[in-house]
Amino acid sequence: MSFTVSSQSKDCRDKQTDFSRERDNPPPFSLTGKVGEFSVLEFMEFQRALKERLSDGSRVISFFGSPSSQEREVYLNAVVAKEETGALQLIRTRRNRAESYPSLTLEHPELQCFEREIYEQYGIRPSDHPWLKPIRFPGSSGGVETYPFYQLEGKEVHEVGVGPIHAGVIEPGHFRFMCYGEKVHHLEIQLGYQHRDVEKLLLGREPWKLTSWIETISGDSSIAHTWAYCTAWENLCGMQVNWSVRLVRGIALELERIAMHLAGLAGMATDIGFLPGGAVYGRLRTTAINSSMRLCGSRFGRGWLRPGEVRCVVNAEIIDEIHANLKLIENDIQGINDLFTDSKTVQHRLKGTGRISRDQAILMGFVGMAARSTGIPMDLRRLRGSIYRAFPFNTIVEESGDCWARALVRIREIDESLHWLLFALEELKTLPATSLGVPPGANLQEAKRNSFSVALIEGWRGEVVHYLETDSEGRLAHYKVQDPSLRNWFALALAVRNNDISDFPICNKSFDLSYCGHDL
Amino acid sequence: MLKAIKVKFTQGKQYVPDVRTAKPKGFRGVPKLADVPCESSCTACQSACPTAAILLNPVRIDLGKCIFCDECARICPSKKISFTEGYKMASDSREGLIVGENVESIRVKASETIHRIFGRSLKLRSVSAGGCNGCELELNALGNVNFDMGRFGIEFVASPRHADALVLSGPITNNMARSLEMAYEGMPDPKFVIAVGACAISGGLFEESKVVSREFLVRFQPKLYVPGCPPHPLTFVNGILDLLGRP
What we know:
- The structure holds 2 protein chains of 2 kinds.
- By secondary structure, chain A is α+β, with helices and mostly antiparallel strands.
- Chain A is about 40% helix and about 15% strand.
- Chain B contains 9 helices and 10 strands.
- At the A-B interface, helix 5, helix 8, helix 9 and helix 16 of A face helix 1, strand 6, helix 5 and helix 6 of B.
């Protein structure tokens, strides 16, 4: 598999022509089609097709089950993307429930979490899966206590269990460290405590009214998830939102990214006892989320995005206020960045700590910030057709793959987002506020029948994937949600190997993964 | 050293001087019901509400369910419902969260006992049981330099053993139900529960989920309900100060 940096990541093209094309073309990182229009492959064929795609520079975005019209039969769907262009493809095979198949994980380790999920949801067993452990215990209570942990045996080894409830104010999950002395030999991460059955709750409702649930899939990524949902649903209804709406969604997403990157930096600084970092990054985050609140009423962007529209108050006064806030962040963050990155204690604690390699990231399919910190320029925002390319914008990559790299990626991405936002706000000033609502005549309550739509958004953690499928009546037949955390939790497990157990908190915070986004 | 001084200089004073009177600009908070009649047999707000938070005849909003999404206000043909920037909406009783035209009904009555025991120092243990990280981030924000709840002697602690109150967020998933109980059992008496956010108070958006279990709250009724999705840090700190009988 190959990755190259987009040579166009810095370009700033003629906006006029760009916008007119924007209106005509759907974003490249979404795919909509008729369910019946592509053939369901035999399993062997599916396996071959998948292998072919993966060897020609594509990667698997998602692999999941979905119900078929036959009760005992389940479709297995793989969404693959061309890394260069972001062009998506859906390939599908079918299996009977309670039937096994040769695990694909052996050849494509990045599928490990997907195969486990399919097994848990549909009972289709990937035989010879090296790691076939529960994902989230969807059944009745008590199951969560039966997790089959690995055990480390030997004279000088011991195990440390942490959680589900942690010392701080964070979500629950269990970590089992297998150590020799102070060194972590292996960390096993057991999740599922946050399982709320989100995907099931999304079905059986009016599918254009799901936003409130989507916003709480992972509360710190409300905008990313909601944007993916809105795009997928709009595509199913055959509607394209205008440039203004997309611009405001971009503004919302970048404010979310800045806020959460600042929260991550504040947390990392606090975890290593670097108090100025906690204080300054923390209060800058307040400015960022208060900017979201000024625009939409919620510090987390709740109620901001809806299918077909964005709901916020935009006028010159508010735009100037947001502009001033961003300028304040831009100005004040320089000092703390300097202090933080120059500090010997910070360098000592972060450099070389919790390292994952580029090869591991590719092999295990890590995404987003975690992948970019190992030298992989994976960022959907750089793809052609993305609104981000209307203004100067760089994909940030760090090479060292350690906590230090993940801190630097945050610091540099905040700069990029601020820069982009300042352009975007200028642009927003010139657009009529009336264009933000659902355009007259748009029908968002009637979706194409027997169709599917998959949409990807680059949230602050990484790519958020939403897959929607309608039945013959146009009702929602299947909804699959994928938070980047599903794939990236394994990165944390790899990162802490051979590290001191006392470095676990900083490793954990450096990834800052979502528990409920994983547990759904 | 110069860098540190520079940071100190730009940082200045960041704390909210008075958490009682601060104004969160743009915040969609306490709803206001105008004194206008509804259109006859109109149920638009009720059917638009994702959490069934609205009662009709007369119109009342259950803030324990409300997620402040603004759907009701947008759809109401007679413009009866609007949301204000008000954030003081914590209540000491579940019923107190149901507000009509007279929002004065939301209040927290200071408890004499709680004031005597915890008035000068209250330690909190947070347990997220299905919280989406929205409430958790806002609870964390209470400790940042802006809200600085520690100035009142109110802090989150790492162990249930050191805690006086359990701050619950999330609808209580089946998979967390037992751990939640164990955390509460591990706290020394006297102790109480604070429910934070629509999920914890009523189940919120996840009330219909088959994998949440609300028994804990039946047995241990919260002393304080803090509405929101997620609640603003000011909602939380004001509610607690009121409960403690602090100025």
